[in-house]
Design goal:
single chain, Phosphorylase Kinase, domain 1, Aminoglycoside_PTrfase, Aminoglycoside 3'-phosphotransferase, Chain: A, domain 2, alpha+beta
Length: 339
């Protein structure tokens, strides 16, 4: 489906929300879903997501939107959901070929910009200060506090970022070994690291003080800044997982940055200022970094030819290979000492 066809599908839903048929619809981005900015004659703007056919079930999307609404009601800085006139957070629209597509609407966040840029993080050019990560750590802790309090809402249906979801045969973002251009010796290294990582994750504590509903994609581009306030967006991949995985995701792309250690300490300090760190909470940090990196390789492996997949193959694979080498080496050392 091309952009014009997607816009026609969106126009078919306008009356369900009470929006004028003459409202402006402009493409913002297309990745897993189409995201449009809809502007009414009043000047009010909305973010409209038209979901890719078959990518998510109705139940999965309704679970995401219900959590967004619940988090907003509890004061967490997330997008504001806009229901249909009938009160539904999601509706179905028909594409030109007769396919039913899911659609939801959020209020547009004006005068906001992404916290950071992945490319700048990797090259070390990001000018962010450690204080920014302290604030983001506090916000992440608040998010985990609220999701823990909410628990599993009725009809909960989302994937789990557990050992199987991260590095299992049916990993949520695909097989890391499928990434384009992977040399045979590098594939062997990743296979070895993945096997060790899977065993370690399967043995990891998953009690409620360290495992629960998480965002699962807290990159610098999924945090908007509006008048100094941070707003967490794009819950498309949220599910259950280790809280530490969210923190590792925040810092993954900053590993090559000269201020990485200062960022990491600030992030953890901010998190701990809101939510008490359980005993040995940070021990699996290296495992979470490697797991996060492997998911990016899996994502790219399923999207060969995509510009972002090419970026991952060229820029992220070397980072993950370094993590894998360190992880297998550390594991061998532990085995050698019997610890």
């Amino acid at each position: 489906m091309d952009t014009e066809a997607a816009i026609r599908a969106v126009r078919g839903a306008l009356k369900l929300y009470g929006f004028e048929e003459t409202s402006g619809i402009d493409l913002v981005k297309y990745r897993e879903n189409y995201v449009f900015r809809l502007t009414r004659a009043t000047g009010d703007s909305y973010a409209v997501r038209l979901h890719r056919a078959g990518y998510r079930t109705d139940a999965q999307i309704r679970t995401e939107l219900a959590y967004l609404q619940a988090l907003g009601e509890q004061g967490v800085s997330v997008p504001e959901m806009v229901p249909t006139l009938d009160g539904n957070l999601m509706c179905l629209v028909r594409a030109d070929d007769g396919t039913n597509l899911q659609l939801d609407v959020q209020r547009w966040i004006d005068a906001a910009h992404p916290l950071g840029d992945v490319a700048e993080a990797l090259t070390g050019e990001s000018a962010l200060e450690p204080e920014t990560f302290r604030l983001l750590g506090a916000l992440t802790a608040e998010l985990h506090d609220r999701t823990s309090a909410i628990g599993r809402l009725p009809g909960f249906d989302r994937g789990a970022w557990d050992a199987g979801g991260l590095v299992g045969d049916a990993a949520l973002w695909g097989n890391p070994l499928a990434v384009e251009g992977l040399a045979s010796e590098d594939a062997v290294l990743l296979e070895t690291a993945m096997a060790r990582l899977k065993r370690d994750l399967e043995a990891l504590d998953a009690s409620a003080d360290r495992y629960g509903v998480i965002h699962a994609d807290l990159t610098p581009e999924n945090v908007l800044v509006q008048d100094g306030r941070m707003i967490v967006i794009d819950f498309d991949d949220f599910g259950e997982g280790w809280h530490l995985f969210d923190l590792a995701t925040i810092l993954f792309f900053y590993q090559p940055h000269p201020r990485y250690e200062a960022y990491r300490q600030a992030l953890i300090d901010g998190y701990g200022s809101v939510r008490a760190l359980p005993e040995r909470f940070l021990d699996p940090w290296d495992a979470m970094l490697l797991a996060r990196g492997l998911t990016y390789l899996g994502w790219a492996g399923e999207r060969k030819g995509d510009a972002e997949a090419a970026f991952i193959a060229g820029q992220v694979v070397p980072v993950v290979l370094g993590l894998a080498a360190q992880y297998t080496s550390a594991g061998a050392s532990r085995a050698g000492t019997g610890s």
